[in-house]
Amino acid sequence: MGKAVSGIAAALVVAGLLTACGGGGGSGAAGTGDPEGVDDGATLTMWTRAATGPQSEALVEAYNATHENTIELTVVPTDDYQAKVGAAAGSGELPDLFASDVVFVPNYTSSGLYADLTERIEALPYADDLAGSHLDAGTWEGARYVVPHTLDLSVLFYNRELYRQAGLDPDRPPTTLAEWDEQARAVDALGGDVDGTFFGGNCGGCGVFTWWPSIWAAGAEVMNEDGTEADLDSDVARRVYDTYRGWAADDIAAAGARDETGTTWTGVFPEGRIGVMPMPSTTLGLMPDDLDFGVAPIPGPDGGASTFVGGDAIGVAATSDSPDQAWHFLRWSLGDEAQLDVVAAGGDVVARTDLAANEHSAADPRMVTINELVAEGRTPYSLRFGQTFNDPNGPWLALMRDAVFGDGGSLESDNQAVSDSLSD
Amino acid sequence: MRRATEVTVSGVRARAPWWRSRAAQGVAYAAPTAVFVAVFFVLPLLLVGRMSASEWPLLAGDRGLNLPDNYTDVADNQLFWPAVRFTLLYTAIVTVALLGLALLLALLVQEARPGVGFLRTAYFLPSVLGLASASLLFWGLYSPSIGPIGPLLERLGLVDGPVSFLGGSDSALASTVFLVVWKFAGFYMLILLVGLQRIPAEVYEAARIDGAGRGQIFRSVTLPLLRPSLALTLILCVTGSLLAFDQFFILTKGGPDNSTVTVVQLVYREAFQRLDLGTAAALSMLVLVVLLVLNALQFRGLRRPDEM
User: Fold this and answer.
1) The complex's ipTM?
2) Beta bridge mates, B276
């Protein structure tokens, strides 16, 4: 009862504040434009996808424990997330806050699903330190709509214990694709149920995330700047495909690589029977305690290093009734407290470059490796990203599978099919 | 009443008020169903029809008519004809395998013998599982990394090396057919069992007295009298298979290499991967027309003159 009364009182106070502000926010969904946001005990709904669910859950839990507002988080299976957002957008039932795989953000901003956050983002004291590739992805016609939520980088994970057994130096992960190949084969030679590497061979998103860094590391491109034309049959790309083809042909990759649709591809390494494979950095904090593993940048054919700066960006739905409260959560989630005590402490990549070196990362050299990669990483941009690269029946997966499991003879026409889809 | 009396007095032939006429009562009885059909079938159908004639991106909504672009898009889709071919192939295989097995099971458990109750329950049990849950279960069983079936076959010496249940186009189809047969055989068995038990014992008795053998009885008595039940299962099975989606969505996602893409998966892909509701609606309309024609043909073909 007392709580209800204080809640009403708080609401009245807020209502007063709103009136005082004179509704300067303009269009409804943008709210008051108050840069602080509002913490008045509102209940907010939020969606995120399963791939980055644990990170969102940690943030929401910490926020709910220390604030009046309550966020109800729904974690949606990754493969169904686009469909769910699309269907909800059509019927005007989007939650107050929704995260999105950063590569799909342009679809949502261009369709007006997010509320304009430009002024609020620029008012943040650390606005210039927010992960740039995420902000860029969320900029549409000059306005900013999203902030980084979880950063997910592709990096090599290698099993130090298996490296020792195979006579490899556990402190010297591969620095070129050729070394990676040698080391994977050396571990695979241990026999038994140990395999050299693993990859999602029937998963377009996995290919984008883990193969492209090898191409970027060599200074090559995968698409033109507008994301309307593919360059996936270059010599560099062919060398990358050929390495993977060797792993598939010689059974260096664990059983199931060819069929792996992306549902379980990160579940294999933690079992401790894979030598070296590229994986999302978000899995770092989820590894079993007794697994002795290291991380390294994904190398190109002749060296270099790059990464795919993926993960989720998050914005306030244009249809939200509580944009001020929603912004309060977003602002808090980017603050020092949340970034250090929740994100960094959980072994994840911080969303702000000024916090890249922090007490938690200092304690774990693997974290330093990953944080340093953010600067070298890329986030590809295309308005047709999902239908071209993530669609299990799309043209990129056909290219991947032809290049690695097929005879690779149709790479040129496959690349053209990807271009056609991009410029559709 | 009063009005009726007045009418009589005035010399005009007695007539009940309009709301008591037979026709009006009929309309009143039919109204609830009609409203239901209108709201949940006709209206959505009109909406889909409208969508199929409009540019209608999933995220942006209606952008006005563009007939016939969506329909030409469907025809231009490279996956369309392979999907049609695959869906028909799948339907044919599933229908033959499923109805054959269901009939066999029904004949097995038709008579009351010791243990028959257990068998009926055992055969029917998979039907209580949702198709999506069953697909997930089999996805786990088939999985090369966690599935138990592959290693089991290996240990028994039936195969060399790991089995890839979903890795090849033929094996993926066979694995899915196996799942669907496992899941639905009990259900169709039940329908056929009811049909079998409706055949009077006297007919069999008469046939036996006339000296008919087992095969003859099956061909000339059981099958013809089972015709309504067979027709029902056939229609259910064909319609269900043509609309196959869940099992492929979960088990194969249309792969490997687009070899198991069904027509409904294309609808889903247009709507939620390519974010184009217009083309998805056009495809749905085509599927609807095909199903209507097919069901009409089946009804005609299986209807007997005396059952009009």
Assistant:
1) 0.77
2) B57
